[in-house]
Design a protein that fits this description.
The structure is a single chain. By secondary structure, this protein is mainly beta. A three-stranded antiparallel beta sheet has the order 2-1-5, with no helix packed on it. A two-stranded antiparallel sheet has the order 3-4. The protein is globular.
């Protein structure tokens, strides 16, 4: 999934790293060899 907006949070399902987007540059976020998952805000 491509990064699309500032403030999105992504989670690595393997190690638990979380990343908050500060600047959108395109591409996808990868950790532990797999794409990170977008965390949906509730």
């Amino acid at each position: 999934m491509a990064v699309s907006a500032v403030g999105e949070t992504y989670l690595c399902e393997i190690c638990g790293n979380e990343v908050v987007v500060k600047k959108v540059g395109g591409g996808t976020l990868v950790c532990c060899g797999q794409d990170m998952t977008l965390v949906e805000e509730e």
